[in-house]
Amino acid sequence: MNQGNMFSNTSRLPLPLCMGIVYIVIWGFLLSCEARSIGDESRENAITDDTTEFLRSYGALMKSYMNLSVDPCDDFYEYACGNWKNVKPPQRTTNKRSNLLDIIYALTEVTEELMTRTQLAEALNVSAELLVAQRFYNSCIAAEVFPLPSADPAYLSLIRSIGGFPAVDGDAWNASRFSWFNMSAHLTNYGAHGLILDRIMPQYPFQPYFKLPELGFDSNVHTDNIANKSSRAYEMNEKRMHDYLKAFNLTEDKIESVISGVFDFWREALTIEDMFGGDSNRCQVFSELKNVTEFDQWRNYFEIAWDGKDFYNGSSSSEFCDFYYTELDKVCAKHQEAVANYLAMVLLYRMDAKLKDKEYQKDHCLLIIQSTMSHLFNKLYMAEHFSEDTHSEISAMVTELRKSQRQVLENVEWLDTETRREALLKESTITPVIGSYKDEELTDLLIRQIGNLSLTEDNYAQNIINLRRLGTTLWRHKGLHFEEISIDAKPLELLIGMQVNAFYYNLDNSIYVMAGILHPPAYHRLWPDSLKFGTLGYLVGHELTHGFDTVGSTFDSNGEMRNWWSTKSEGVFQERAKCYVDHFSNYLIPEINRKVNGNETKDENIADAGGLRQALSAYRSHMKQLQRREEDVETLAPKNVQMPGLDLSPEQLFFLGFAQLWCAAYEEEHYWEELSHEHTSDKYRVLGAVSNNDDFAEVYKCALGTPMHPKEESCRIW
Predict the structure, then answer these.
(1) pLDDT tens digit string along 167-194?
(2) CA atoms within 13 A on the CB side of 87
(3) Span 654-678, mean pLDDT?
(4) 478: in domain
(5) What are the pLDDT digits (tens) for 602-634?
(6) Same domain for 139 and 165?
(7) Sign of the dihedral defined by the CA atoms of residues 137, 139, 145, 148, in that order
(8) 201 within domain boundaries
(9) If we measure between CA atoms, which residue out of 682, 659, 666 comes closest to residue 81?
(10) Are residues 317 and 366 in the same domain?
């Protein structure tokens, strides 16, 4: 996952929870389709006309993504996805577009439908909360959100209460009372990240942890991408700030001065980050090596954001990267007004729908309630859209993948006997959870919190402020109430089945396949089995492999952090892991003239490679089992062999399905955003996975020395 994330749109999680966040498009007309399960003993002898037509239609869709003028052995990503950017449906987003991320827009259609299910809500005892969701939605639909009315009194009042807006308030702004750190702490209460970027640890006591702040608005700023005013990053950020400031009737000279001050602040702040390459872990090393004293303001953050919970007590200074914040404090002292102006606009950016056109307002309103009231809509979704038949098929697929993983562990030559025994023990105790983790009492408690949302007619600005605050409170719930919960409590993420995601959780050695992932382009019950294994099978294999990556391998079968490796086997393991670091570090992203961070992304790249190999092995084993039950492979139902309209063998379809999960359309700013993420950018994760997969070269008949079958020995751990 990511999350999480098998996907790059979320920040890196700490050790216990490995997220493969995979946002998949849900095609509305597919939701009601039925087909036999992988685990069924009986076989269908005929396929209905509707099924045939669906397969033809989906095959045509897959073909429309491809650039057939490219040899798959030269550039498999371009071959599989080269035309996706030209056929993708229009959507409102400032994020990158991808075949997977587009799930969010299809899920809004499901959310819209669920908002009308009053009888279902009554049966589930959530009708009062659904009414609150409907009221907010109606308020949002009726509001003027394009462009953001940044001068709305509700926004300005909040800004003044947490630190002020000198560009607007002029001499009334009191610099002596301003604290950049306290204002940043207040911003986190609304999910806005100014100069504090906090996340939640996925284990008891669910305290916050911190990443280096990501400066900028529509494009993260770096020293080299704002070096001149003609750069895309400079122009995008300048325009965003100009649009906010002009609503306050400031003169153009004043607006230019304010924007210039923010850029000056950014440039100087970035020199601190540049010392350690923007890597939070290296920042912590700096703190220790330089013997930095404790940054004395962290307790303010916990007072402001966490009701004074004493998470800070006993923590080492390196956990908070005190070196960075000690230096940043000096920079902020030199640019007080600019920092306050920047943080004020960060609050506005958080409240901004950031629409490209008013036509996308409905999607925006649905997205907000879907994400903030996730436990409510998850309860409705799981009751309405997650069937036992689906659960059975996915369970059977997970079983096949685990058999494949076990065979790898039994046969890999470089493991010694004792380490192999520990690895096999760990595999045997993995607990699969399909759909979501269930905690009805906690779920109902979180849903009831929606009733506390204060909504005011004809005051959408105040309503969105209140909703953002509620969302953060729900997100922090377990940390805020850690004294009342069990030490082995699970992260809240695991309760949300209505997310297109999968997880491996180190602390209980479990794999989670969430209900939201079980839709195209990751899965459909009518697909050929080769496509199912190339998509969902790979995703499951990816999460299983996280149990044996450089982080997962430090946890044993009981979820305890323990070194169960012999010195010899661990040495080979680390050497093989370094192969992935070196391989991916060679990929240059020409759009930004930066290379992939092979060290930061190594575990996700290891999981991709392991997941792809396990999935193909599981598919081959599955087909052998079917052949033993059939007289001849030709008598198998066609849906288990090929996709109509695609002149591909089943195993070629397997790899095509994998690659098309990651079809994407990036703008320059998205590459900058992903530089510090744990996932390789989509194109290079596909190229890296297949060019290190000998089966791919055989299936696509790639000659040795072609880009997808290089002469160098391929990287492989599992």
Answers:
(1) 999 999 999 999 999 999 999 999 999 9
(2) 14
(3) 93
(4) yes
(5) 999 999 999 999 999 999 999 999 888 765 545
(6) no
(7) negative
(8) yes
(9) 659
(10) no
